[in-house]
Amino acid sequence: MLYRSGALLAAAFMLSVLPSAPGRTQEANFALTIKDHQFSPTQLEIPANKKVKLIIKNADPTPEEFESTELHREKVIPGGTEGIVYVGPLAPGTYEFFGDFNPKTARGHLVVK
Asked: Tens place of pLDDT for every residue, the chain, 113 residues?
């Protein structure tokens, strides 16, 4: 019985010191699609000074690489799948990204406000 009381007390203590789910800061999610070797939308507005999650869906049958020298990010996304790229927190401004496998057509930018 003493062991069970000690375990319950330890569990109660851990719950009291751990941050609760509603208090956690969650990053915002934003979506990009690659279709016909182009990003859609080509301009994506995201909030300044916050970490954001870009969910990039590749609707083409061939792979594409999301790349941005300004954001220091690159990720190959196989055809018919999606990938996740985290960016930020970023200062206000415009940040270019492109598809490294189709750089003439797969272009866009993040507008950070």
From this structure: 555 555 544 555 554 444 444 545 577 999 999 999 999 999 999 999 999 999 999 999 999 999 999 999 999 999 999 999 999 999 999 999 999 999 999 999 999 99
Distance separating alpha carbons of residues 78 and 4, to the nearest angstrom:
51
Cβ(54)–Cβ(32) below 8 Å: yes
Interatomic CA distance for residues 14 and 77, integer angstroms: 40
Residue type for position 31? A
Q: Beta strand 64-68 with 93-99: parallel, antiparallel or unpaired?
A: antiparallel
- Give the pair of three-digit tokens for residue 13: 């203590």
Mapping DSSP onto H, E and C, the string for 4-44 reads HHHHHHHHHHHHHHCCCHHHCCCCEEEEEEEECCEEECCEE
Model-level pTM?
0.76
How many Å apart are CA 39 and CA 31, to the nearest integer? 10
